[in-house]
UniProtKB/TrEMBL annotation:
The protein's name: Aldo/keto reductase
Database matches in SUPFAM superfamilies: NAD(P)-linked oxidoreductase
Organism whose genome encodes this protein: Archangium minus
The keyword Oxidoreductase is annotated on this UniProt entry: yes
Keywords: Oxidoreductase
Positions of the NADP-dependent oxidoreductase domain: 24-313
Keyword Oxidoreductase applies: yes
Length: 333
């Protein structure tokens, strides 16, 4: 084993008490399927493969990203590299051919139906982590987790995860089968999980994979690219919130520049420093964005930096619109 390989192997984070060892940053692939404007499949595939070459192991997707497009893309990128990656897949969201959202379906039969399509699109025999994307209010979480537990016994799934659920749901799910991680939005702009959710994860031996680290590009200065861009309809990117947040983001950028960091590196470094036992999942669409995020691993922040950023960054607006927030189990207190 070379020195480089040895260092890479040692630099891992364990997902929960029973989960796999993963590289300290994961790659989220949603943005490669049109959620944030135009994409390039060839560049997306090169980015996934570059991430794998750099040691990234956790690749996160969802069967409803681009209505299957994202899984097909990931499948092409990991062909011949399956042994180097851990696939995290979300399921359950229902979408029409026009892209409309129609709620969630996590009935046991639906769970087993969804995974059969995911395995085929990804070109694999099993998934490392399988998780419902949202809580289905019509189905007890015990039934959904029980169905995934059946898939674990059958060898189609290695570990079970959750996404955007609250404390009660986490406890109920964990009683049915060990949960390795909760996927939830967390960034300098979205710190809600700190109060109640993270303490329960620590108590139960569950990790977290943290998405939205850049607050959907807000912290890096990215702006919606037209009405089809998901962010054009989010509170933080519209109206007076947008104007207030631009001032905060400009100050954030100056803070990064003073430390010879990019805004993206500062956003990732903040999460790594604040939650060292958890794994940020970065939504890089290009090799340049990927390399930028990986640069944060070599630029740790001090306690003074964290204190200064807490005072500096006060983001206006919720992360979703009111109707979407209402349906997030993780937001229920």
């Amino acid at each position: 084993m070379s020195t480089h390989e040895s260092k890479k192997t040692q630099q891992t984070v364990k997902l929960g008490a029973t989960g796999p060892e993963v590289f300290p940053l994961g790659l989220g692939c949603m943005g490669m399927s049109g959620m944030y404007g135009a994409t390039d499949d060839a560049e997306s595939i090169r980015t996934i493969q570059a991430a794998i070459d750099r040691g990234v192991t956790l690749i996160d997707t969802g069967d409803f990203y681009g209505m299957g497009h994202n899984e097909l893309l990931v499948g092409r990128a990991i062909a011949g590299r399956r042994d180097k990656v851990q696939l995290s897949v979300k399921f359950g969201a229902l979408r029409g051919p026009d892209g409309q959202w129609y709620g969630n379906d996590t009935r046991p039969a639906a769970v087993k139906n969804f995974i059969s399509y995911s395995l085929t699109r990804l070109g694999v025999d099993y998934l490392d982590i399988y998780r419902p994307a949202r809580l289905d209010p019509a189905v007890p979480i015990e039934d959904t987790i029980g169905a995934i537990a059946d898939l674990v016994k059958a060898g189609y799934v290695r570990h079970i995860g959750l996404s955007e659920v609250g404390v009660e749901t986490i406890r109920r799910a964990h009683r049915v089968h060990p949960i390795v991680d909760l996927q939830i939005e967390y960034s300098l702009a979205s710190r809600g999980p700190e109060a109640e959710i993270f303490p329960v994860l620590n108590e139960l031996g569950i990790s977290a994979t943290l998405y939205g680290v850049f607050s959907r590009g807000l912290l890096t200065g990215s702006k919606p690219q037209g009405p089809k861009d998901f962010r054009a309809h989010l509170p933080r990117f519209t109206g007076t919130n947008r104007e207030k947040n631009e001032e905060v983001v400009n100050a954030f950028h100056r803070f990064a520049q003073e430390r010879d960091m990019t805004p993206g590196q500062l956003a990732v470094a903040w999460v790594l420093a604040r939650q060292p036992a958890f794994v940020p999942v970065v939504g890089a669409k290009t090799i340049a964005q990927l390399e930028d995020s990986l640069g944060a691993l070599a630029r740790p922040l001090s306690k003074d930096d964290l204190t200064a950023l807490d005072a500096l960054v006060k983001i206006s607006g919720e992360r979703y619109n009111p109707a979407q927030m209402k349906h997030l189990d993780s937001e229920h207190r």
